[in-house]
């Protein structure tokens, strides 16, 4: 008898969570200042703990703010895997970075993570005076599953007319959770993401198959993309998610959204965490410099 998706997802959390969240030692940016604070935000799906990274002393105050969502297939809850990216962006872009420890499946499936991601971002946008940042100059971004949540946050903000991010960063994100992962090709014989692992992620996060086409689950299947924030889309050519990332970038552009799509050749999913180091550093620096421009405009 096969194990249920929930049991399989819990096994991933227990057995692979630490491995999946490892960061290459040469991508850790140990020279970046290490001042952090803890923030707790109440949301419609329960309280959420966040880590605040402040820019170096001397940055103009109040600084703009960037909200970051980590990856992990909607199953692994390890926001510290993005610590290196958050530190570098805070130092290089001169902004406050808030790293969100959102709920994960199977304990909290869709829509709980989306609700938390949106509610935290809305709170950050409206509470700059309390937090010590400029909530009117806000950007949002994420990696892998966090990129998917970023797209959901931006869509919800547009539909509700609550706040307008100046930039969304979508790094190696899944945009079509309806398609069978086996149909998503990679030039590699053994890419990082296997179809079985991807099926476990999707089944745990979206237990009701009717939700697989929901625009907050599969933003790449939506046809009403006009009015979304400018986007930096980062894709890895060897990633099984490359094609849907490239397709989403083209769809955003066709809808009139300003898009920068950067394809990194010869690298696989999550190279901003696992390397190769030169490409990983280049991608992270691209995020930071693009943010600096967008938030200072």
Topology:
Blueprint: H1 5-15, H2 17-20, E1 36-41, E2 48-53, E3 63-69, H3 83-93, E4 96-101, H4 112-126, H5 128-131, E5 133-143, H6 145-160, E6 168-171, H7 195-205, E7 231-236, H8 242-254, E8 259-264, H9 271-274, H10 277-296
Parallel strand pairs: 3-4, 3-5, 5-6, 6-7, 7-8
Antiparallel strand pairs: 1-2, 2-4
What does this structure look like?
- Helix 1 (5-15) crosses helix 7 (195-205), helix 3 (83-93) crosses helix 10 and helix 4 packs across helix 6.
- This protein has an eight-stranded mixed sheet with strand order 1-2-4-3-5-6-7-8, with helices on both faces.
- By secondary structure, the protein is α/β, with parallel strands linked by helices.
- The chain has a single domain (5-296), classed as Alpha/Beta hydrolase fold, catalytic domain (Rossmann fold).
- The longest helix is centred in the C-terminal third of the chain and has 20 residues, at 277-296.
- It has ten helices and eight strands.
- The chain has helices at 5-15, 17-20, 83-93, 112-126, 128-131, 145-160, 195-205, 242-254, 271-274, 277-296; strands at 36-41, 48-53, 63-69, 96-101, 133-143, 168-171, 231-236, 259-264.
